[in-house]
Amino acid sequence: MIEAEAEELLQDSRALLTGTLTLAVDAPVHVLPQIARFCQRYPGISVKIETGNTDESLSRLYNYQADLALLGRDVDDVRLLSVPLPDDQLLAFVARDHAWAGRESICLADLDDTPLVLRETGSVTRQTLEQEMRQAGLRIRPAIQVEGREAAREAVVVGIGVGVVSAAEFGADARVYAMPIRDCTQRMKETLVCLKEQSSRRVVATFLEIVRESLHANSKNA
User: What does the pLDDT profile of the chain (222 residues) look like in tens digits?
Assistant: First the structure.
């Protein structure tokens, strides 16, 4: 029995000496600290990050092109093992020379018929904004539709319109100014998922454990 356990531990150790961990994510910022910790502990594992919206990330997971996926919404699927991450508020952001720069906050009515920089159709950020505006009886006026968070930021910087992003994904950029949407009722959710059939793989289980450790530590410090 002891010999069998020792052999299992040896195999587990070898399993994390080399290999690859691929994550399909909508926004890497939500798991970068955990990725850094994983890389420090297991330098022999090559970590690959594939970015895309939630639908694209989920598709990569289902097609076995990723080991884990980070999604911007809950997905009810018995095939998935899910680890919810902390949620965030929705922010509007504008260029530094915009009339709103310096405001403490805005309300949804401020966005009514305002030129907006919108993400692609599959973006959860866009879907959330559209739902909030629709429920409030307000109009969305697209100034431009762009693919990806970086393109949206650059469109805002040059003054095409107002952008919307989750607080965790705003980052640091002196060219833009962000403010909360105070009457937005929904919060942006992030969920890390893997296929249950893949959850016992050592590399997947180890990364999930690091994420859970981080969540536990954050909850104790809150």
Answer: 445 444 444 455 556 888 999 999 988 888 999 999 999 999 999 999 999 888 899 999 999 999 999 998 888 999 999 999 988 899 999 999 999 999 999 999 999 999 999 998 888 899 999 999 999 999 999 999 998 888 999 999 999 999 999 998 898 899 999 999 999 999 988 999 999 999 999 999 999 999 999 998 876 665
CB 155 within 8 A of CB 146: yes
- The CATH code of the domain that includes 34 is 3.40.190.10
Residue 27 corresponds to which amino acid?
A
Which residue range(s) make up the domain with 108?
A: 88-187
Q: The whole model's pTM is what? A: 0.75
Please name which of 194, 206, 203, 204 lies closest in space to residue 18, comparing C-alpha atoms. Answer: 203
